Amino acid sequence: MKPPIHDRQPVYAAGKALEEARAAMIMLHGRGADAESILAFAGEFRQPDIAYLAPQAADNTWYPQRFMAPVAANEPWLTSALEKVAAIVEHIGLAGIPPERTFLLGFSQGACLALEYAARHPQRYGGLVGLSGALIENGDRPRTYSGSLAGTPVFLGCSEADFHIPRDRVERSAILLKDLGGDVTLRLYPGLGHTVNDDEIRFVRDLLGRTEDG
């Protein structure tokens, strides 16, 4: 199978232009979805002065295997996906928005990617949001991360019994991100299914609203 080349894929935008925005959010879609589908959540956050950027994954998939598979099984797709996120973070910074006003959010496979990127590149972000996802690191063997999230607000929301995302993986991710210095909020919802609920939307909306212009 020829690996997809994520860096050749478009990045869609909503909200304010980067040069005029007070903050920016990178939004990562799930497997089989597309950038425009997750970008639709921007309207529900009701923060129009933020720049929302959603990259498109090649073939609508960031990596081929489940996030619990050995990491090597998802290469070179995973590295390509992480590099795509890094390029957008850099682009946001060049537009004048620092990491502490840059948010990373993803759903499902996109959530796993967002969490893994932040864990591998820890610094003070505006916020880190994983909706129905967990760290990719724990697929083959426990690994340690270095550096510090320096108090970055981290939100993990998931069903208590998500078929795709085992509860123990989410809980382990919360511990690891807290150990990295994240200010972690973990919410497990009974009977949610593999989706996003109103409580999660409100949390993100409030998180974005607390971010002041630097």
List keywords for this structure.
alpha/beta; 214 residues; 20% strand
Characterization of the model:
The chain has 214 residues and is of the alpha/beta class. 30% of the residues lie in helices and 20% in strands. Helix 3 crosses helix 4. The N and C termini lie far apart (46 Å). The relative contact order is 0.16.
The helix content is 25-40%
Rg, Cα atoms, Å: 16 Å
Q: Which structural class do you get from the secondary structure elements?
A: alpha/beta
Count of β-strands: 7
Give the uncertain stretches in residue-range form: none
Largest beta sheet: strand ordering: 1-3-2-4-5-6-7
Quote the beta fraction: 15-25%
Separation, N- and C-terminal Cα atoms: 46 Å
Please summarize the sheet with the most strands.
7 strands, mixed
Shape call: globular
Say what oligomer this is: single chain
Spell the H/E element sequence: EEHHEHEHEEHEH
In short:
With 214 residues, the chain is α/β, with parallel strands linked by helices.
Task: Explain the layout of strands and helices.
Blueprint: E1 11-15, E2 23-28, H1 35-39, H2 41-45, E3 50-55, H3 77-94, E4 102-107, H4 109-120, E5 127-131, E6 153-159, H5 167-179, E7 183-189, H6 198-209
Parallel strand pairs: 2-3, 2-4, 4-5, 5-6, 6-7
Antiparallel strand pairs: 1-3
Helix pairs in contact: 3-4
